[in-house]
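Researcher: Go.
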Amino acid sequence: MARSTAAQLTTASTLVQLCVETADGHRLGRVFDLCCSWQAGRACVVDEVFCGSSGLLERLGFTQSHLHAVPWSRVQQLEHDVIVVARGG
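Model: Structure:
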């Protein structure tokens, strides 16, 4: 699902401020920052989204040892204003 979802994005910045929830409705917070990488022959690829208050602190330049990073591989669905992810360990 993440690959087809990624194909729908025009820019990674469209993810910023979206709400992140698990499939069972547990709210993880809003997206405040992204970790992206360039792959040969492809456009920018989203690797992780940072959400919640720790994501906001990271975006403001404060480093923390326990950021709430959600790997893009956990994305199950991208709705209009919500990113639905599989619950991770």
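Model: Strands lie at 19-22, 27-38, 44-51, 69-71, 75-78, 82-85.
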